[in-house]
């Protein structure tokens, strides 16, 4: 096989490597199998993204982009085999592919789904509720978010060529930002194939995705305040790139995910023979061997009450791990990505060995790295075991005296992506959470109750924040819509109710009411206007109504039934109507009975009962279209703002009613 030329995709064209290209070796054979790197016109790439990709993405709504992501994920799902095939060359096994390739596609699906459920079918995202900035409500505030107008530059590590790209690409595209992806050169050929597929799908607008295989030239020098850099890799590279003058001068957000000395704590209750002990040993084995330990979230430090039984059980498990050709279905642990990384793991393990004894040293075929387990007898005095990340199948066991000591040791990593705790003791879990959460981006608790469904210490999930403070880079990725927010500008908007309604596409009390003439429940989803309002006729609430409702439902609370006891209650003047009776009467006042576009009432949000309603009071409802969110081709969700008032105009109840309306 010849040397494969790994191309970049720049300003709409594929560009082959040139004389400055770097060689890429096969992880198993060590042979040079590919090369990548060309002198690209970074200015043209940025222009293409900013002037072509950005406007095209911003013309879409969040839902359009979410649908695009779903289609992209489905497209890749149908083409996994060629990606698996290529990925074996990185040293990854079929099981590793599930994390990288299936994991990347899975993350894209989750962002697609969250985009549809949690973001509006609009170009403006609302961040939080309306803030009352004035006494009579004529001047209000709220936070909105819109996509930044620049480029999202994604610089990724070598260990996850597909997941590493997709976990950043999905939230950036959902936000509406064009992306330039720069994978690590060692495994960029897998990323290149995935990018090629996505471009061939025709699902992405022109300019939304570009690829740099090789060096980034003067790309970073050209960035400005509307751009975002999201970096994954070593702390050293992060520190260097963060200090680029243009990044500092332009306050360019620089999200860094870097080295991490992740801890796993075995709870004091998890003695040998307990299910928690076994779960810990199983997960630790997996964390040490998956991706041959080249995982940013891998368990590097095992903090346990008694090291001896842990070392014994873990060594027995590690000794049985089959290491070798990643293509073989028997293989449980594949290869380290390159000879230089193998050397790096050996050098880092040698540093750890200055403070810890090697207690398990596995054997592996020539060219592979065997798992190694260290025991650090004095973790308080040790420095290196808490600071040096051997990016391979290497872990260190250390003992703790009590929970506070365990927390102190876990925090000695000075910021990590994840710490796990294997315990069934809720008090121990709570204590450790309070003592350690400040130092870890994610806390993962597992025990016999959750083990079957737990997703694993080492698995970042698109729903949950991935990133960690301090040494881990201080970044935050994923975490559902939190991850999308990195690519948007949050802006405080202040103004009158009408202005806020127009800007946000969300009716706020005090804004103009539109009288459409016809009952809004008779109107199809697409013809309803934001602000459309009906006012119902009043209905008098009688004592008979209250008694009837009380006996019918069984809710004979004294506040509704006993005049004297109710009057003694600080909230009631005497017997009052049930809040649920008021809601039911309100429905009776505004519901349109015949079959029509309203398919179902799907819920009620932000309900507050305010002034109590006494027998003889007359209530009426105001119902206003607050927000509309398309769900599918057949129907969409309408959020109605409902206010119930009494004969004196006092508000008795306020809530948001949700209905599904057909088109
Ligand atoms: P690395 O050497 O720091 O490289 C990371 C990325 O930076 C690569 O794409 C690399 O490209 C690029 N890069 C290096 N110098 C650059 C420069 N001057 N200008 C622009 N880009 C530059 O890290 P790695 O060896 O790929 O990854 C291993 C490290 O990543 C480990 O420390 C691991 O803990 C960390 N990691 C962290 C996470 C996380 O989520 N926190 C995930 C995975 C890995 P080239 O390959 O072309 O040099």
Automatic annotation (TrEMBL):
Which GO terms fall under molecular function for this chain's record? Answer: aldehyde dehydrogenase (NAD+) activity
* The protein's enzyme class: oxidoreductase
In short, the EC number is 1.2.1.3
Record's keyword terms, sorted? Oxidoreductase
Question: InterPro entries in the record, alphabetically?
Answer: Ald_DH/histidinol_DH, Ald_DH_C, Ald_DH_N, Aldehyde_DH_dom, HotDog_dom_sf, MaoC-like_dom, PaaN-DH
Q: Which residues form the Aldehyde dehydrogenase domain?
A: 25-492
Q: Which residues form the signal peptide?
A: none
Q: Which NCBIfam families match?
A: PaaN-DH, PRK11903.1
Q: What is this protein called?
A: Phenylacetic acid degradation protein PaaN, ring-opening aldehyde dehydrogenase
Origin organism is Candidatus Rhodobacter oscarellae
Its taxonomic placement starts with: Bacteria, Pseudomonadati, Pseudomonadota, Alphaproteobacteria, Rhodobacterales
């Amino acid at each position: 096989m010849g040397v494969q030329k790994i191309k970049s995709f720049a300003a709409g064209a594929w560009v082959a490597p040139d004389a400055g290209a770097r060689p890429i070796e096969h992880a198993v054979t060590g042979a040079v199998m590919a090369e990548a790197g060309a002198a690209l016109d970074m200015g043209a790439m940025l222009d293409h993204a900013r002037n072509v990709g950005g406007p095209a993405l911003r013309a879409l709504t969040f839902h359009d982009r979410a649908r695009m992501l779903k289609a992209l994920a489905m497209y890749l799902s149908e083409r996994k085999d060629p990606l698996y095939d290529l990925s074996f060359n990185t040293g990854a096994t079929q099981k590793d592919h599930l994390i990288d390739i299936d994991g990347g596609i899975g993350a894209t699906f989750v962002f697609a789904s969250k985009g549809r459920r949690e973001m509006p079918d609009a170009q403006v995202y609302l961040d939080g509720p309306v803030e009352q900035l004035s006494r009579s409500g004529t001047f209000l505030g709220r936070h909105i978010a819109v996509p930044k107008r620049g480029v999202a530059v994604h610089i990724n590590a070598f260990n996850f060529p597909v997941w590493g790209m997709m976990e950043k690409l999905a939230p950036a595209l959902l936000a509406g930002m064009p992306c330039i992806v720069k994978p690590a050169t060692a495994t960029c050929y897998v990323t290149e194939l995935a990018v090629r597929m996505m471009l061939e799908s025709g699902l992405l607008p022109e300019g939304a995705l570009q690829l740099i295989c090789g060096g980034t030239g003067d790309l970073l020098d050209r960035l400005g305040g509307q751009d975002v850099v999201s970096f994954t890799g070593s702390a050293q590279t992060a520190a260097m790139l963060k200090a680029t003058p243009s990044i500092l001068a332009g306050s360019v957000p620089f999200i860094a995910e870097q080295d991490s000395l992740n801890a796993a704590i075995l709870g004091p209750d998890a003695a040998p023979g307990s299910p928690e002990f076994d779960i810990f040993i199983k997960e630790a084995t997996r964390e040490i061997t998956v991706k041959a330990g080249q995982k940013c979230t891998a368990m590097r430090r095992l903090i346990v009450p008694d090291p001896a039984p842990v070392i014994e059980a873990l060594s027995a498990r590690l000794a049985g791990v089959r290491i070798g050709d990643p293509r073989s279905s028997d293989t449980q642990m594949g290869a380290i990505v390159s000879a230089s990384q193998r050397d790096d793991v050996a050098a880092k393990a040698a540093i750890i060995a200055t403070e810890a004894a090697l207690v398990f040293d596995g054997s592996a075929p020539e060219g592979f790295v065997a798992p190694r387990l260290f025991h650090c007898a004095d973790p308080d005095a040790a420095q290196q075991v808490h600071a040096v990340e051997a990016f391979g199948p290497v872990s260190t066991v250390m003992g703790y005296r009590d929970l506070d000591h365990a927390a102190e040791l876990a925090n000695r990593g000075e910021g990590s992506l994840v710490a796990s705790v294997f315990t069934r003791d809720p008090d121990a879990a709570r204590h450790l959470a309070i003592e350690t959460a400040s130092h870890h981006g994610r806390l993962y608790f597992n025990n016999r109750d959750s083990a079957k469904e737990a997703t694993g210490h080492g698995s970042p999930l698109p729903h949950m924040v991935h990133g960690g403070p301090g040494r881990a880079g201080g970044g935050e990725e994923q975490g559902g819509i939190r991850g999308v927010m990195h690519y948007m500008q949050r802006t405080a908007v202040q103004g009158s109710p009408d202005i806020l309604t127009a800007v946000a596409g969300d009716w706020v009390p005090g804004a103009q009411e539109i009288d459409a003439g016809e009952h809004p429940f008779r109107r199809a989803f697409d013809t309803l206007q934001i602000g459309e309002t009906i006012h119902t006729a009043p209905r008098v609430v009688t004592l008979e109504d209250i008694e009837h409702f009380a006996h019918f439902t069984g809710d004979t609370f004294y506040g509704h039934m006993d005049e004297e006891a109710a009057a003694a209650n600080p909230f009631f003047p005497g017997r009052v109507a049930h809040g649920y009776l008021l809601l039911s009467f309100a429905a009776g006042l505004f519901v349109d009975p015949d079959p029509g576009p309203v398919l179902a009432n799907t819920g009620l949000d932000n309900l507050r009962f305010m002034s109590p309603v006494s027998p003889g009071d007359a209530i009426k409802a105001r119902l206003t279209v607050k927000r509309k969110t398309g769900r599918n081709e057949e129907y969409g969700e309408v959020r109605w703002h409902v206010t119930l008032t009494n004969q004196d105009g006092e508000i008795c109840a306020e809530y948001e009613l949700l209905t599904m309306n057909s088109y």
